[in-house]
Amino acid sequence: MINKRYFRNAVFLACSAMALACVNSTIATDTDSAGTTPGTSTGTSGQSQSQQGDWAAIERLEGEAKALATTTGCAASGECRAAPVGSRACGGPRYYLPYCAKSADSAALYQKLDQVAAAERAYNAKYEIVSTCEFRMPPAVGVSGGACAEQ
């Protein structure tokens, strides 16, 4: 007769091993408080070059958007804005980018940010990325040290 405790422990260990295998092979995380991003930490040591290359392309687009997000030129906090960046797998932006609406080309910035979000949505679908589903609100922004920044 099989010991019930032994059987229960064996089942628990088997389920844990299967869950860990799934997590290591498919999950990437959004940028979080530790600065983790989908392209840099998937929990696997053998991340494909294609996936790294695809994430690098998103980062290049994001860099172009950041270059368009001029933060100087605003005299009052009411002239500062926060633009959504990226597209998390569960929806919504990864973070918000402060900019000065008075001096930045808002149309060009949002056009570039739309490209970033579209590329990230495609990346998330292609690599079956998952994320947490909390709603991320835009931060309060204002003038600090002569530039728009998160408050």
Would you kindly provide a written description of the structure presented here, covering whatever features stand out?
The protein is of the alpha+beta class. The chain contains three helices and four strands. It has a domain of 104 residues. It has a two-stranded antiparallel ribbon. β3 and β4 form a beta hairpin. The protein is elongated.
Mean pLDDT across residues: 80
Separate helix tally: 3
> Count of DSSP E strands?
4
Beta-strand content: 5-15%
The run of helices and strands is HHEEHEE
SS-based class: alpha+beta
Radius of gyration: 21 Å
Parts with pLDDT < 50 across at least 5 consecutive residues: 9-36, 40-45
Short description:
With 151 residues, the chain is of the alpha+beta class. Helix content is 42%, strand content 13%. The protein has a domain of 104 residues.
